[in-house]
Amino acid sequence: MAEGVIELSGSNYEESTKGGVVLVDFWAPWCGPCKMQTPILEKVAAEVGEKAIIAKVNVDENPELAAKYGIRSIPTLILLKDGENKQQFVGLQQQAALVSAITAQQ
Length: 106
Prior knowledge:
5-stranded mixed beta sheet; 4 helices
């Protein structure tokens, strides 16, 4: 997995997202924009440090999580605070926009 980015699945999703600020990237290995998002997420993780958890969910391996959030296209990134959906981004996102959204939740 990418540096500073954790992999979530059905077994650890609830526990990992229930507290604090978490940015979750819903992606798939065959998705071109998803591959371009990964290095951006690594930079976001390095910049925000302990302020937020940066995580990824493979929609092919975890369709129930994708369905829970109504994911229709990938990459979709969801910003959660204490388990509550605060903001959703669809498509490739730039580092500055993600860092700004995370910082706003502090």
